[in-house]
Amino acid sequence: MSTPKIFDGARDAWLLQSDEQLLRDCRVDSYRGSGPGGQHRNTSDTAVRLTHQPSGAISTASERRSRKQNHAAAVQRLRHQIAVCVRCSPAIAPEKPNWQLSLANPAYPLLIAHVLDAVQEAEGAVGDTARAIGLSTGKLIRLLHRDSAVWQAVNRVRAEHELHPLKAPHR
To answer: Domains plus CATH for the chain?
Structure first.
């Protein structure tokens, strides 16, 4: 993954758009997914690749035999990709966030985007980030660790500022 792109406010608008609105800014490609042959071999173009033109974020889905299901999965992954790869500066904390979000919650990409903005602004210092968003350091680390893409993004920011990578929290 490349260096995050900086946008001022546009990212939040993209993440809050309906699927249809978000897709208006996307190039949608269908293709035949790879995989094993056999009786259930997928012989039609049901795999989907979405390219969000303004941000350059790309997502794909090919695990289902239905183009509609792959399309829905690709849209969800695109939101996550935008949240992880696009930073806003300065960081703006969300109002009354629900820190118990699951990956399936529609608000998750926006929340994680704001957390990553705060990490970038704090130059990778997790304690400073936690204070800025109103969490304990331990709770923030557990939140970050739940999502491998987010965990990697935080450790990239830390590496840019010559800090050691975060260690996984104890279970």
So the answer is: 5-87 (3.30.160.20), 92-171 (no CATH)
